[in-house]
Amino acid sequence: MQFEFLLEQVVNGLVLGGYYLLIALGLSLIFSVGGIVNLAHGAFYALGAYICVELTSRLGFSPSVVISPLVVALLGILFERFILRRFYTADPILSLLVTFGLAMVAEQAIRMIWGAAPVSTEIPQSFRGSIIVGDFLFSRYRLLILGVVAAILLGVWLLLHKTSFGRVVRAGIQQPDMVAALGIRLQPYMTAIVMLGVGLAALGGAFFAPITTVHPAMGADIMTIAFVVVVIGGLGSFWGVVIAALLVGVVRGIAIHFEPAAGEASIYILMFLVLLVRPRGLLGERIEKFE
Amino acid sequence: MIRYPRRTLLRAGAAFAGAAALGFPAIVSAQAEKIRIGHLTPLTGFLGVIGSYAQLGAKLAADEVNASGGILGKQIDLLSEDSINPATAATKAQRMLEQDGAVLLLGEISSASALTIMQVAERNKKVFFSTGARSDALRGKSCNKYSFHCDIPNTVMVNAVGTALSQQGMVKGKKFFTLTADYIFGHDLLKAAKIFFGAHDANLIGDELIATDVTDFSPYLLKVRQAKPDVVCCNLAGNQVTNLVKQYAEFGLPYPLVGFNLNTGDAWAAGAGNLSGTWPTVWYHTLQSPTSQAFVAAFTKTHGKPPENHAWIDYITLKLLAEAINTTKSTDSGELIAYFEKQAQFDIGKARKAYFRTWDHQLVQEAYPFTVKPKDQMKDQWDMLVLGDAVPAANDPLETIYPTREQNPCEMKA
Q1: Do B209 and A260 touch (CB under 8 A)?
Q2: Residue A151 class from Cβ within 10 Å (0-12 exposed, 13-18 middle, 19+ buried)?
Q3: pTM recorded for the entire structure
Q4: Do A9 and B219 make contact, defined as CB atoms within 8 angstroms?
């Protein structure tokens, strides 16, 4: 029985990791293309959640969970055009400061619009409850999230590896000067990637609004875990982030199975061990700007 | 860069210097007309949401007292700050008493932070009214002469819910599984719960200590399912209660979820369709008493939403402090202690008046169990709870739900 319980935690950890992935992937994408560590990423996550709650009371859950990330992605255009664009070639410390400042401004803005008290929303009746497969219990809602994450992962991979858009983006990451010399303007590609990144964060927020507390500081809470995932996976690595997110979910589940009090500490210990062996993270590449 | 003419700068500088020389003494004397009171409460972290209600409650009380003439004919200058964590709480408490000239302190929700403020109060020989901290230990073995405790302690919350559960046949011979916040408050609540289970033939078959920064409870819910309890009991605090309640509804486990601690702010955040079961509360805005209803009306008018129980307790505490200062005609901590130790009675908006017990400084008052209203019967999003009968029953003395002198190891040094 013990083994089955442990296995159940591992499977549940993979599902949880899928959700972490949604937040961390956007963070990693924006970093790979622009070289910017976006500390405001959590703010877009929170906005996604709040807009989704706001829309749900008018339109119901399903349309809201689609529209909310799209609205935030549009905000991403303004974010890229008026803020990030100035910092692609600047000292990384400046973009850290400006995105950190933006995160604080966004949190206060949310407080002003929606108030400091949390807003509440629920999972629609049709997605509630659990499915029992053999001895394993799955939350129906989390299985839905896992399905969406898998589809998005496939979509982003195809976009980056099978389209001309992706070829330009990947070339731009490795040889921006060469791409420019070929007469290709990288700006629109940057805008698109930032839109995609913050849109994914907002989708994470929208999906998690019904099962966590929706409060102004929720963005700051999620940033810690997103950073742990990105650092373990290696900054800028697509598969690194995927593996790290799943690993973090599983390690946490196993730790809670054996030693509940060490549940949260376990992921930091994992990060410590990975960095000890591989300072660039599991699949991280050498980044000249930072080394 | 904008360049200002040098002359303008000089003129501005001279004006500023002049204003400083003339204006500052006026400001200093204006401040001396006010009585400064230090108010600390967490505005960030897992207790931040209910802390922000506490701040609004204290501010409303100060405004009302000031509008009706203040205390000892002077205005209250309420210095309200975010206590964040125990270390910051102690540092700010120290600063408020030593540098800002606060005559006394009130506030706090976190039991861990309240404990550090209590130590600062004792060192400085100034009174501290702990408004929202519930750990039994604070009014038990850690009690001190300068600290007063306004919220109901953990033992009372356990007794309020436990009595209601017993009446529903959910205690005797039942298997309980508890989820407990891993800090002084949670440990303390679990201890009170264990005493209750022991006295009522219930079995505790599993307990998980949960760090205060946990937001995802799925691994713990799997452990609950493995244990197959009769009742799951939530001993968490703040945002964590909301997260657990939401995720419990998500997983749809068949075991009833009850809890020994909940604030109405957490219940509202959880949403009507997610919360069920029986829980304790110290106050709710539907309580029918003139004092409570006047407070609810004033708060709702200012903030567009009804007050949460922490808004009420910080409001009522500052009000009874003002009353005490006006009666004793003094802000001296020694005189205030002597006044409260005479067990003066206060209208706190409940059926029965409340008083501070002389030997442990606990505000003795009624508590309530509540259940959740069906969604279609709610008047608005805040009308979620159905209050049970106040405990103790009207014929029983108030102290019957509080720890007795034998159970509560409080020894105050003179």
Answers
A1: yes
A2: exposed
A3: 0.88
A4: yes
Q: Is A212 helix (H, G, I), strand (E, B) or coil?
A: coil
Count of pairs with CB atoms under 8 A, one residue in A, one in B? 117
Q: Do B269 and A12 touch (CB under 8 A)?
A: no
The CA distance from A18 to the nearest CA of chain B, in Å, is 13
Q: Is B53 on the interface with A (CB under 8 A)?
A: yes
3-state secondary structure B343-411: CCCECCCCCCCEEECCCCCEEECCEEEEEECCHHHCCCCCCCEEECCCECCCCCCHHHHCCCCCCCCCC
| ipTM of predicted assembly, 2 dp | 0.91
B226/A contact by beta carbon, under 8 A: yes
In this complex, do A121 and B243 lie within 8 Å of one another by their Cβ atoms? no
Contacts of B237 (CB under 8 A, 6+ apart): B46, B47, B181, B185, B186, B212, B261
Q: Is B353 exposed, middle or buried (0-12, 13-18, 19+ CB in 10 A)?
A: middle
What pLDDT digit, counting tens, does each position of A22-63 carry? 999 999 999 888 888 999 999 999 999 999 999 999 999 999
- The amino acid at residue B387 is L
Give the DSSP letter of residue A119: B
Half-sphere exposure of B113 (CA within 13 A, CB side): 30
Cis peptide before B392 (omega within 30 of 0): yes
